[in-house]
Design goal:
eight-stranded parallel barrel; globular; Double Stranded RNA Binding Domain; three-stranded antiparallel β-sheet; 41% helix; alpha/beta; 510 residues; TIM Barrel
Length: 510
C-alpha cells in the first residue's frame, strides 16, 4: 500500500464486546446504551455490539443497540464459526441499517492442535462453511467479517492462512480481520504479515487489525498496520479488554492525526469520554496514561517546567505531544481550580486526592467552587475537598432527617421534616433501606429507588463507610447521592436524604 495515497481509517469499536467481557461487572443493556450513544457522538464508523449467542443479556443488548443505531454506523455481532451463533447474531442485529456478521476461528498451529484439536484442513473447511452460511443467510443486506484468531502466531504457516483467506473471500467475506490475539512479538514482524495478506487479497476487501496490549505495543502495531494496508482499526475506549487490554482508540486516533491522516473522529470528545468510561467500568485511569492520565500533562523537572511555561500558549508545546484542547482537556499542563475552571478540574482534583466522585457530581458543585474562587482566587486541594464535604456528603435542602426507630425486623418509624412540616411514618419493608424508602413514599413523596452500593473509606474517624445510592428523578435521569458515617445504617440514611434534597434542589432550578 502506498504511504502517500491512503484510505481514510475506519474506526471499529470493540468496547461493548471485547472490553465489556473483561470487566469484573459487565454492563447491562442500559449501561451499554449510554456508551453506545457516546460512541456515535465520537464518530466511530462501526460498533461491535456484543456476542449475541453468549447469553440472553448479550442478545438483548445487541438487539436494543441495533434498534437505536444511526443509519451510517455499521452494527456488528460476533459469532463463532457455528450456525447457531451466526443465526443468533443475525437475529440480534436485524433492525440495523448497516449489518455485519463477524465470525472467527483460530488458525495458528498451536491453537489448532492444542485448543481446537482440529487439523488445518478441518479448520479451513469450518471457516469457509461458516462464511458461506452467513452470506447465504444475510444476502446483500449484510457485510461478513472473518477473523483469523491468533493471527499474530501464524508466521510459520502464513501461506496456509493466506490460501485459506482467499477461499474465505470467495465464500463471501468482505472484511478480513487479523488479530494479535496475544501480543508476543515485535510490531514490525506483525506488520509485515499484515502487508503480505493485504497484497494477496483483492483490493476491494477491507483489511482490519485487532491488537491486544500484552507487551504494551498495541498502539504502535495498529498505527503501522494502517500504513501497510489495514484500513479498519479495531480499538477500545480506555484500552479496555482482556488481560492488559486492547488497542486504545484515543492513542491510535491522535497518533494518526499527528501523522497527517484525516481522522474521522470528534477528537474533542476524547477526554470527557475517557472519564465517563473509567467511572462506568470502575477501571481507574492510570495516572501516567498517555493523553488521558492525570499526570499526562504534569511537569516536575525544573527544565521541563521552564520549557512548558515558555511555550504554554503555543499550539506546539516543548514537552507535550498535542495541545490539550485537541482532546477536550482544559487543564493545560497544570491542575488547579480558579473561577475560570469547570467540572473536569473538580473531578481531577478530588479524584487525585483519593475521594470518589462522578462527573455529574463535579458539575453540581462547580458553581459553588467558582463562587469561592471569585473571592479568594485559585482554590487549594483542601478548599475543593471542603466544598466536596459540604455539598456532596451533606446536601442542604427542604428534607431533614430527624429520627428512625426500629419497631421490628420488618417495621420502622421514620421521622423527618420537609419545608418545616414534620412527618412521622410507620412503614413495613424488606430491610431498613426498603422500609425507609417506603415510609417516604407513604408520606406522599414520589421517590424511585434504583440501587445502592457501599464502600469502605478512610475519611476521618467519624466517616469510614460510604453508601452510594441511585435514584430516578421525575424527569427520568439517574441521580447519584452519597452518605458517609462510621455506622453503615446511618450512612444509608444520609444517602437517602441527600438524594431527596438533590432531586428537590434540581426541581427548584428547573
Amino acid at each position: 500500500m502506498s504511504e502517500t495515497v491512503k484510505k481514510q481509517p475506519f474506526f471499529y469499536d470493540i468496547t461493548l464486546r471485547d472490553g465489556n467481557q473483561s470487566l469484573k461487572k459487565p454492563w447491562n443493556t442500559q449501561e451499554k446504551e449510554i456508551i453506545f450513544n457516546h460512541l456515535t457522538e465520537l464518530g466511530v464508523q462501526g460498533v461491535e455490539v456484543g456476542f449475541a449467542a453468549a447469553s440472553e443479556m448479550d442478545f438483548e443488548a445487541c438487539s436494543r443497540l441495533s434498534q437505536i443505531s444511526p443509519d451510517n454506523i455499521v452494527i456488528s455481532a460476533l459469532a463463532r464459526c457455528i450456525k447457531h451463533d451466526i443465526e443468533k447474531a443475525a437475529e440480534a442485529i436485524q433492525s440495523a441499517k448497516k449489518q455485519r456478521i463477524h465470525t472467527f476461528i483460530a488458525m495458528s498451529p498451536f491453537n489448532m492442535e492444542y485448543v481446537l484439536n482440529k487439523t488445518p484442513q478441518e479448520v479451513r473447511k469450518q471457516a469457509i462453511e461458516a462464511v458461506s452460511f452467513a452470506k447465504k443467510l444475510m444476502g446483500n443486506k449484510s457485510e461478513i467479517q472473518f477473523s483469523v484468531e491468533h493471527f499474530g502466531d501464524c508466521s510459520e504457516n502464513l501461506d496456509f492462512v493466506i490460501e485459506s483467506l482467499q477461499e474465505i473471500v470467495k465464500a463471501g467475506a468482505t472484511v478480513i480481520n487479523l488479530p494479535n490475539t496475544v501480543e508476543r512479538t515485535r510490531p514490525s514482524i506483525f506488520v509485515q504479515m499484515v502487508e503480505k495478506v493485504y497484497n494477496a487479497l483483492p483490493k476491494d476487501i477491507t483489511i482490519s487489525v485487532h491488537n491486544h496490549n500484552d507487551l504494551g505495543m498495541a498502539t504502535a502495531t495498529t498505527v503501522e498496520s494502517y500504513f501497510k494496508g489495514a484500513v479498519q482499526l479495531e480499538c477500545a475506549l480506555n484500552g479496555l479488554g482482556e488481560r492488559a487490554g486492547n488497542t486504545n482508540m484515543y492513542e491510535v486516533a491522535v497518533a494518526l492525526h499527528n501523522a497527517g491522516v484525516d481522522v474521522p473522529l470528534n477528537l474533542s470528545k476524547i477526554y470527557e469520554l475517557a472519564l465517563i468510561i473509567s467511572d462506568m467500568s470502575n477501571v481507574r485511569i492510570y495516572e501516567k496514561a498517555p493523553l488521558i492520565g492525570p499526570e499526562a500533562l504534569a511537569h516536575r523537572s525544573g527544565i521541563h517546567q521552564d520549557g512548558a511555561i515558555k511555550t504554554k500558549d503555543m499550539e506546539k508545546g516543548a514537552y507535550r505531544p498535542i495541545h490539550p484542547s485537541l482532546i477536550g482537556r482544559k487543564d493545560d499542563e497544570k491542575l488547579g481550580f480558579t473561577s475560570q475552571s469547570g467540572k473536569t478540574a473538580i473531578f481531577e482534583i478530588i479524584t487525585e486526592a483519593g475521594y470518589p466522585i462522578t462527573l455529574g457530581e463535579a458539575q453540581r458543585i462547580a458553581p459553588v467552587a467558582k463562587e469561592a474562587a471569585e473571592k479568594i482566587g485559585e482554590l487549594s486541594t483542601r478548599n475543593i475537598i471542603d466544598i466536596y464535604y459540604q455539598n456532596i456528603l451533606t446536601v442542604k435542602g427542604a428534607f431533614k432527617f430527624v429520627d428512625i426507630e426500629k419497631l421490628s425486623d420488618e417495621e420502622i418509624r421514620l421521622q423527618f421534616k420537609y419545608k418545616g412540616n414534620e412527618y412521622n411514618v410507620v412503614s413495613f419493608g424488606n430491610g431498613p433501606i426498603d422500609q425507609c424508602i417506603k415510609a417516604i413514599q407513604k408520606a406522599g413523596f414520589n421517590i424511585e429507588f434504583i440501587n445502592y452500593e457501599q464502600k469502605a473509606l478512610n475519611m476521618g474517624s467519624d466517616a469510614t463507610g460510604m453508601t452510594i445510592m441511585y435514584f430516578k428523578a421525575p424527569e427520568g435521569k439517574t441521580i447519584i447521592s452519597r452518605g458517609c458515617d462510621e455506622n453503615t445504617f446511618m450512612a444509608n440514611i444520609k444517602a437517602i436524604f441527600n438524594g431527596l434534597n438533590i432531586i428537590e434542589n434540581e426541581k427548584e432550578i428547573i
